[in-house]
Amino acid sequence: MTRIINELVTLDVRTVRHNTRYRTCRYLQFRSSVGSQSHSSVFTMLNKCRYTVWPGVLSGAGTTQISPTGFILRRGESTSVSVPTSWSGRLWGRTLCTEDSSGKFSCLTGDCGSSTLECSSSSASPPATLAEFTLNGAGGLDLYDVSLVDGYNLPMMVSPNGGTGGNCTSAFIGGAITILAAMRQLWHLF
């Protein structure tokens, strides 16, 4: 289990606003920090995998498209992306990406179908573990989750850093062992 946790891509989300609630998970590691002076958020993604990951970003309907919408993170690298105060969208990691002789870019998992490094306004093709965010949502709260609705391709964690109110804990989606353990817990509920 320790080996799985050490092989993640990390995202550090810094939201600077009061009355913020967080839920977290791991896939790429996403970290979030909350302060009280500014009204913006910064997502910092850290690749803790032993291989290169190509994150994709898609803004939700009616929210500002952020840039970049796709980039490369080699093992141990990180990058930060600023997002507006009121933003919703998803981030995911693409794996086993290549560019063919004609310049067409594609990925084995999480491909967005844009044929380029940038995803523009395209979402991930399954399988892809998703980190989903709504900033300044209902009641002024920031909400997030890690979703397996489009399948699983990487372990992911979203880690809050700072903030006030709510349940500021980290959640983790790891390898097959973690997923099976979570399913076993759900089966006991029924």
From TrEMBL:
It holds the Pfam family Thaumatin. Gene3D superfamilies: Thaumatin (2.60.110.10). SUPFAM superfamilies: Osmotin, thaumatin-like protein. Keywords: Disulfide bond. Disulfide bonds join 97-107, 112-119. It comes from the Eukaryota. This is Thaumatin-like protein 1.
